[in-house]
Amino acid sequence: MPTNDPHDRITQEYAGLADTYDTRWSFYVDATARATVARLPLCDSDRLLDIGCGTGVLLRRLSAIHPAARLTGVDPVPEMLAIARRRLPSAVELQRGWAETLPFADRQFDVVVSCNMFHYIAEPDTALREIKRVLRPDGRLVITDWCGDYLMCRVLDAYQRLFGRAHGRVYRTRECAALVEQAGYATVDTERYKIDWRWGLMTARFTAISD
Ligand SMILES: C[S@@+](CC[C@H](N)C(=O)[O-])C[C@H]1O[C@@H](n2cnc3c(N)ncnc32)[C@H](O)[C@@H]1O
């Protein structure tokens, strides 16, 4: 049933995509996971939350490099989580939930990461404050997503806004940093880069400012 609720649209879109997601998007997902891990400050004792973990590609990469780190993934779509569960070690915890209403107690995580998910969030300010709630004081937030600084991404954004069912919006690095800072974080750095001729990405790193 068509619906105007952004959460329903995301759930429908990814329930339908789950079975083919890894093969259809393998280059893109592997390249963005690799780029994110290379920019992720993670110690073996850290507790990390991957929001919008999808089929678990980033978590699998992290668990191979940091077997002692405590890794958790959250995603609203059961079909995506089922694939993640099959590929990940049982020590990696998976939960169903939305970035805007995370199913975790306060101050649980040292690092929160989100890869290829930020442009879906309908209420980014709510989500960023919710992420801050679950981060320890001075915890770190790392966002990898499409980067509106690149013309091609702005074109894809415009197309997806017209025809995509679940798409929200793409941000320029400056816009993303301003949004995150307003929610109570300090920018560590933002970096933009291309993974091929088409895809321009950014990875932006932040620290939660203690209240
Ligand atoms: C493009 S996929 C990315 C999956 C994975 N992070 C990756 O890089 O392959 C986007 C994922 O974000 C999830 N998602 C969308 N909106 C979300 C929200 N508001 N909160 C949490 N997850 C969300 C979707 O269910 C989907 O699994």
From TrEMBL:
Cited InterPro entries: Methyltransf_11 (IPR013216), Methyltransf_Superfamily (IPR050508), SAM-dependent_MTases_sf (IPR029063)
Gene3D superfamilies (alphabetical): Vaccinia Virus protein VP39
Keyword set, alphabetical order: Methyltransferase, Transferase
Domain Methyltransferase type: residue ranges: 49-143
Name of this protein: Type 11 methyltransferase
Domain of life: Bacteria
GO molecular function: S-adenosylmethionine-dependent methyltransferase activity
One of the protein's GO biological processes: methylation
